[in-house]
Design a protein that fits this description.
With 94 residues, the protein is of the alpha+beta class. It has one domain (3-92). It has helices at 24-44, 50-92; strands at residues 3-10, 13-20. Strand 1 and strand 2 form a beta hairpin.
């Protein structure tokens, strides 16, 4: 696994990162998502500095991550329940 040094811009600051080559694309996409979210918040709300915008973006992303985590947990529980039911049915029919 080869590592690369890349530069990304977040809220008008440049950050140099050393990343695995296979992670570069996802990091660049994440940087673009952050940039788009910062732009959206700056268009919608007044703010004192970029820190305020970044705080809102972090809150948005963390909230979305928790929502997806809860959905995945629910789906896993449902899947486990259905698989147990299928296993029980198959066991009875043997």
């Amino acid at each position: 696994m080869e590592e690369l040094t890349i530069s990304v811009s977040i809220a008008d600051r440049i950050y140099k990162l050393t990343v695995k080559q296979e992670e570069e694309e996802i990091i660049r996409k994440a940087t673009q998502l952050i940039g788009n979210a910062v732009k959206n918040y700056s268009d919608l709300f007044s703010y004192k500095d970029k820190q305020d915008l970044l705080a809102m973006v972090v809150l948005q992303f963390a909230t979305n991550a928790l929502i997806h985590e809860n959905k995945n947990h629910f789906i896993e529980e449902q899947l486990e329940s259905k698989l147990s039911e299928i296993d029980r049915i198959l066991s009875v029919n043997q």
